[in-house]
Design goal:
heterodimer; A: 1071 residues; Rossmann fold; Calcium-transporting ATPase, cytoplasmic domain N; 37 helices; 33 strands; globular; B: 306 residues; alpha+beta; 2 domains; five-stranded antiparallel β-sheet; 8 strands; 16% strand; Phospholipid-transporting ATPase (chain A); EC 7.6.2.1 (chain A); translocase (chain A)
Chain lengths: 1071, 306
């Protein structure tokens, strides 16, 4: 399948879609059916729909169908409007993109049109920093060599600039001709492969050369990339609108489900099963009662012979009666709560980064609870732990080391003297620093020069060179000028041997202006440069310097140079051109050719650049580690630097208390053996000792290929790991491994190379840093600094988890309470499935009376933030899922059963005989439930604010007001009932009795537990109450710490069993 | 914190409980169960046949002894047991609209079946099983020991007032002033009592009381009120016209109840007893916890924290 694109000719060729980009999920017309369909894909909604439909059968429904249809409709409207709002926002942003003005050639004249009006075949003109509106084939640029630069980060997450070349056939077109050119392009139908474009192009006369010319991906400008460092470029639109490569590869992200959510789902299923059992038992018993007993009750007038489905009627009635067991409001309540948690994060003043004025932001509002359950943090290094501000600290030139602990190399007088005395080695060194890079100098109007660089290291080097009087003053694609000690030197830039992560080095070939000498200037990682050094040269001191610098946590680069013979260069240049133009396997060929030139390099020296740790990183990591979170560092940097940074930021402990196991080797066997050894050491070492392992990308690759299982085991045993030289894919793989074992992972990073890992992890956190915003955009949460992570996890995550745990279980509690009362009542109604409560009460109970007080929990803090940050160990409770698991749920289940018994039995006994009419008893029972639940919420609220008091007791008062109003409506059955009840002293006495009997044992049990088996949370709460949150005396604090540690080690030992069902069923099998 | 609260609750609950018990005990209650006693000995083996046989005179007169002084007003209830007014089939078998509005007479709908339409196809007013099974035993009372002699008028006879036994809300709103019984109890199967077709529903107080369904299978409903004082030891005769079928199902007890009322309503010792028990339990618990704390003090490190 091919498409033919006629360049600049709207009259011929098929018509393809216009360039209207649409990311919206719905249109105005399909919104309702599509959204409904989507919502009904959820089990809960299907269940409620079934219940609602059953309720339409009046023969079996115990209450009016409104009780289910009403809430169901509300839930649907709420989620539908949320979807609609999101979609509307997407529509708005699409619209903005679609209505952006672009320059397009129309009928030979250049004019501005809206982006959405671009058609296939149009010639589009772009200027520097424009976003590319659709997929184009490049036909002309401002660069005489036909090159332009694009940033493809939005497409593939890679931040380095990519070079795009115009196809040879268009090479000689003048900009005048470009507007008039006609031709035909033969290209494949749209697909989502952003690395492949196999097409060809033929131009029509008057262009003479009308041979077919092959096109590849490097002739294209793809939608959503940016044009950089190129004044202008123009291209032919080939794919437009949603048919572009980026449009085709846009997938909808799978919604993430939190561990707490999946726990709730499991509990829901359990309750569902329980409900089915209850229904079957009661239905069966009801049928028996009917046959053995019911027919004798003449006033019931049971017909002798019922319809065939008669035996189903009673079970179905019970099914409807029990359907309230699963709270219909739970999803809405939880969604609302999650929205509030996200707002709390967005509005947190203390997570506002003043330096860059970035607030914390939660892009994904649904997973705050997971933050409180994080077990593994996988962190990027550069830009995440460090500031990603590179500062030139030290260097080693000609066996002399400049810069020491007291000062930078830039202030080292020896170096300054060497510069001023034109010492040749130093000058050469500086020249390489200034020239061997892809930095672009930009002169501002006042003559000051600033540098634009994609690599922070290069920028640091060029800046350092300019500080040492070697200033790169101007540069274009073919020449560069440097100014040293105020004399200017011209260089012709011949070739750039680009940096790739495989080569780990880059070189440039320049021709010196004055002497006409050809020079090869190289810089790169030590292991990439030293093996290529001049065999005669002594590299020992440099090696030592590299060693020393990386021990200080500095990033090192080796600089070198070689003079080339003209003939040698010419010959090589031809080969290089050939390789650059080759159609298949180009990268490999280029690397080979480069390799042939980069030989016998004279090492000039070593630079050491410091990437400072971010503010507060060591403290944060220490805190997170003592909170029981395992922190892994994944970096693209080299091992020594990574280890040093890890030491600096408390990730690993120095030798005496810790041990760093290095997994490495030259061959596969060696690596695997070293892995096994590490595993044995991990298993046998006592827990006290801090063990960590370190490996690099190559090792990981081999291990994953051969010994995935032992690595998984190692990963589970190791609290800390340093993984260096990781590719973005490997980072994501590591996250994937931990995830499959069932751990809850959080990935944090700042750059495009972290995007995959961020998307793979349960929680992705992006740092809105210097490497752009891609990571922050792909992430669920974005923060300004690494140090905010502790607040995000310990404060927001923990509170969110606690609150969700309470809200969800409480929702079940209140539903079960009312349902158990209905079941108990059915025992005195001949198991006929009569509802004790009327429809209005039932609906209001779920939607109103019980949903409002629970909202107070959203503002509840079980202990103050300072206490949590002071005793981070407490996170273990939420981490291990101690507050929401089958056993806590069993507690709530028991409580609701007990409360139902209390309410029902007391009501039945106090309102016996002449007071036993239906309306009164139902109101008494309902008020009993309301009283109890108000006290339950109060008991479980730890902090009191006015809002909480108002919500709990205001709701309580509202209950009475509403019911008194309802009792004043003459047409309702409950007319005057509430007035009558409220005027009876016995009613109030009954309420007091219900509350006392209901809450007394709960209180007493809690007291006993507090005194004899306090949990760490209880202990801290008591400390807070007695001492206040801030001032804890030293000995109390140490005592607390010891006590907490004791409690928590017990807990941790049991953690496995408690913890497993939370996350994954596969855990047990792997362990 | 918890111990004082418990003690405090105990302190409050016991007096309230005692007050409730005293109040409940002040209420004088005479319960006379007549469902078997009013069946002649030869019919005991087949009570259903007895009650369904219209030709038998079902009047039965018994003497009751008043245990303590009873001050007016004395409420008369009938009490049924194992009667499931709360059964789903039964409790929904009514049409509230029909009771309220004459226009809604035809609004008998699904839930009134099988007592929705009369044989002639006309809607029954009031429809449904509840109305159809209206309780129809009647009671009359007389003083026994001081029969009126000539010239001595003696105390007035014990008249039972049936006015005002329903709630004003029922008379005023739930049962219509212009709604008259139609086609009621004229089917082949007669359930319970008849209604006077000339009286509007808003005056049929027995029906209102009956239709205010009970939530429990054992319930009392107000039959009438006696504006008379009775003295301890006094004998009164109660004449029961026993016509309501409580015999076809097991445990179908019927009783007539005379009772005075206190501030907590009728005689019901439950609240008082429960309060006293809970109060004592609170005290006991407080004591127990205190002892527990004394015998097994908190762990040392835990104490340090307090």
């Amino acid at each position: 399948m091919k498409r033919f694109v006629y360049v600049n000719d709207e009259s011929c060729g098929e018509s393809y879609c216009d360039n209207r980009v649409s990311n919206t999920k719905y249109t105005l017309w399909n919104f309702l059916p599509k959204n409904l369909l989507e919502q009904f894909r959820r089990f809960m909604n299907q269940y409620f729909l079934l219940i609602a439909c059953l309720q339409l059968w009046s023969r079996i429904t115990p209450v009016s169908p409104v009780t289910t249809w009403g809430p169901l409709a509300i839930i649907f409207i709420v989620s539908a409007s949320k979807e609609a709002w999101d979609d509307y926002n997407r529509y708005l942003s699409d619209k903005k993109a679609n209505e952006r003005k672009v320059w397009v050639v129309k009928d030979g004249i250049r004019g501005q049109i809206k982006a959405q009006e671009i058609h296939v075949g149009n010639i589009v003109w772009l200027h520097e920093n424009d976003e590319i509106p659709c997929d184009l084939v490049l036909i002309g640029t401002s660069d005489p060599q036909g090159i332009c630069y694009v940033e493809t980060a939005a497409l593939d997450g890679e931040t380095d600039l990519k070079t795009r070349i115009i196809p040879s056939i268009c090479a000689n077109l003048s900009s005048d001709q470009l507007g008039k050119v006609k031709g035909v392009l033969e290209c494949p139908n749209p697909d989502n492969d952003i690395r492949r474009f196999d097409a060809n192009m033929r131009l029509f006369p008057p262009i003479i050369d009308n041979e077919k010319c092959p096109l590849a991906i490097n002739n294209t400008l793809l939608q959503s990339c940016y044009l950089r460092y190129t004044e202008w470029a123009c291209g032919v639109a080939i794919y437009t609108g949603n048919e572009t490569k980026s449009g085709m590869s846009r997938g909808t992200a799978e919604p993430k489900l939190t561990a707490a959510d999946s726990m709730i789902d499991k509990l829901t299923v359990a309750i569902f099963v329980f409900q089915i059992v209850v229904v079957l038992v009661l239905g069966f018993a009801g049928n028996i009662w009917k046959d053995s007993n019911g027919r004798k009750h003449w006033y019931l007038m049971y017909p002798a012979e019922g319809p065939w489905y008669d035996f189903l009627v009673i079970p179905l009635r019970f099914e409807l009666l029990c359907s309230i067991m699963i709270p219909i409001s739970i999803k809405v309540t939880l969604d609302l709560a999650k929205g509030v948690y996200a707002k709390f994060i967005d509005c947190d003043e203390q997570m506002f980064d003043r330096e860059t004025s970035t607030p914390a932001h939660s892009a994904n509002t649904a997973i705050s609870e997971d933050l409180g359950q994080v077990e593994y943090i996988l962190s990027d290094k550069t830009g995440t732990l460090t500031e990603n501000i590179m500062i030139f600290r030290r260097c080693c030139i000609n066996n002399t080391q400049y810069g020491d602990d007291s000062g930078d190399a830039l202030k080292d007088t020896r170096l300054l003297n060497a510069v001023s005395s034109n010492e040749p080695d130093v000058v050469k060194f500086l020249m390489v620093m200034a020239l061997c890079n892809t930095v672009v100098p930009i002169k501002s109007n006042d003559g000051a020069i600033s540098y634009k660089a994609q690599s922070q290291d290069e920028e640091a080097l060029v800046n350092a060179a300019s500080n040492l009087n070697m200033v790169l003053t101007s540069k274009d694609s073919s020449s560069a000028e440097i100014c040293f000690n105020s004399s200017k030197f011209q260089y012709e830039l011949l070739d750039v041997l680009e940096f790739t992560s495989d080569r780990k080095r880059m070189s440039v070939v320049v021709k010196e202006g004055g002497s006409g000498k050809f020079l090869l200037l190289s810089k790169g990682a030590d292991e990439a440069i030293f093996p290529r050094s001049n065999p005669g040269q002594q590299t020992k001191t440099y090696l030592e310097a590299v060693e020393m610098y990386s021990h200080l946590g500095l990033r090192t680069l080796c600089l070198g140079w070689r003079e080339l013979e003209e003939g040698e260069y010419k010959e090589w240049s031809k080969k290089f051109q050939e390789a650059s133009c080759s159609l298949d396997n180009r990268e490999c060929k280029i690397a080979e050719v480069c390799h042939s030139l980069e030989q016998g390099i004279n090492i000039l020296g070593v630079t050491a650049i410091e990437d400072r740790l971010q503010d507060g990183v060591p403290e944060t990591i220490k805190l997170l580690r003592s909170a029981g979170i395992n922190v892994w560092m994944l970096t693209g940097d080299k091992q020594n630097t990574a280890i040093q940074i890890a030491l600096l930021c408390n990730l690993i402990t120095p030798e005496s208390n810790g041990q760093l196991l290095s997994i490495n080797g030259k061959t596969e066997d060696e690596i695997l053996r070293s892995l096994e050894r590490a595993l044995v050491i991990m298993k046998t070492t006592p827990e006290r000792k801090d063990l960590a392992f370190v490996l690099d990308g190559w090792t990981l690759e081999i291990i994953l290929k051969h010994s995935m299982e032992s690595f998984t085991r190692l990963a589970m045993l190791s609290r800390t790991a340093i993984c260096c030289r990781m590719t973005p894919l490997q980072k994501a793989q590591l996250v994937g491994i931990l995830k499959t074992v069932g751990y809850l992972t959080l990935a944090i990073g700042d750059g495009g190379n972290d995007v995959r890992m961020i998307q793979e992890a349960n929680i992705g956190v992006g740092i809105s840093g210097r490497e752009g915003l891609q990571a922050a955009r792909a992430a669920d949460y974005s923060i300004g600094k690494f140090k905010f992570l502790k607040r995000l996890i310990l404060v927001h995550g923990r509170y969110s988890y606690n609150r969700t745990a309470f809200i969800s279980q409480y929702s079940f509690y209140k539903s079960l309470l009312i349902c158990f009362i209905q079941i108990l009542f059915s025992f005195v109604t001949g198991l006929s499935g009569t509802s004790l409560f009327n429809s209005i009460s039932l609906m209001a109970y779920n939607v109103f009376y019980t949903s409002l007080p629970v909202m107070t929990i959203l503002f509840d803090k079980d202990m103050s933030e300072t206490t949590v940050l002071q005793y981070p160990q407490i996170l273990l409770y939420s981490q291990a899922g101690r507050l929401l698991n089958p056993s806590t749920f069993a507690g709530w289940f028991g409580r609701s059963l007990y409360h139902a018994l209390v309410v029902f039995l007391i009501t039945v006994h106090t309102n016996a005989y002449e007071q036993s009419n239906m309306e009164e008893i139902s109101m008494v029972a309902l008020s009993g439930c309301i009283w109890l639940q108000a006290f339950v919420v109060t008991l479980d609220t730890n902090s009191f604010t006015y809002l909480q008091v108002i919500l709990i007791w205001g709701n309580f008062v509202a209950f009475y007001i509403i019911n008194l109003i309802l009792s004043s409506v003459p047409t309702l059955q409950m007319y005057t009932v509430m007035w009558r009840l409220c005027s009876q002293p016995s009613y109030w006495i009954t309420m007091a009795l219900i509350v006392t009997i209901g809450m007394g044992p709960v209180l007493a049990l809690r007291y006993l537990r507090n005194v004899y088996r306090p949990s760490a949370i209880d202990v801290l709460q008591q400390i807070e109450q007695t001492n206040g949150p801030t001032q804890t005396s030293r000995n109390v604090e140490s005592a607390t710490r010891i006590y907490l540690d004791q409690l928590l080690t017990d807990l941790r030992r049991n953690k496995g069993s408690i913890h497993q069902p939370l996350l994954s069923d596969s855990v047990a099998s792997i362990r | 914190m918890v111990i004082p609260v418990l003690a405090f609750v105990g302190l409050i609950f016991i007096p309230i409980g005692l007050a409730c018990i005293v109040s409940s005990n002040k209420v004088v209650e005479v319960v006379y169960r007549y469902d078997t006693k009013c069946v002649p000995g030869n019919m005991l083996h087949n009570k259903v046949a007895y009650i369904q046989n219209a030709s038998i005179d079902k009047t039965c007169t018994r003497t009751l002894k008043i245990p303590r002084d009873m001050k007016r007003p004395i409420y008369i209830y009938y009490q049924l047991d194992k009667f499931y007014q709360n059964h789903r089939r039964y409790s929904t078998s009514r049409s509230d609209a029909q009771l309220r509005e004459p226009k809604a007479a035809g609004d008998v709908a699904e839930f009134c079946k099988p007592e929705a339409f009369a044989a002639n196809g006309r809607p029954i007013v009031p429809c449904g099983l509840i109305a159809w099974s209206l309780f129809n035993d009647t009671y009359s009372f007389a003083r026994r020991n001081r029969l009126p002699r000539d010239g001595d008028h003696g105390p007035p006879p014990l008249t039972v007032s049936k006015r005002g036994i329903s709630w004003p809300s029922e008379r005023g709103h739930l049962f219509g002033k212009n709604v008259f019984p139609r086609n009621f109890q004229n089917g082949s199967l007669v359930g319970g009592g008849q209604l006077d077709p000339r009286k509007p529903l808003s005056e049929q107080e027995d029906l209102m009381v009956w239709m205010r369904t009970a939530a429990l299978p054992r319930f009392r409903k107000l039959y009438g009120r006696m504006e008379a004082d009775l003295v301890a030891g006094e004998l009164i005769t109660v004449t029961v016209r026993n016509s309501y079928n409580s015999y076809s199902y097991a445990g179908g007890e019927k009783a007539v109840v005379l009772s005075t009322a206190g501030w907590l309503g009728g005689r019901n010792g439950f609240l008082g007893r429960a309060y006293v028990v809970v109060g004592m339990a609170c005290f006991l618990l407080a004591l127990l916890l205190t002892l527990l704390c004394l015998v097994f003090p908190m762990k040392e490190e835990h104490l340090l924290l307090r």
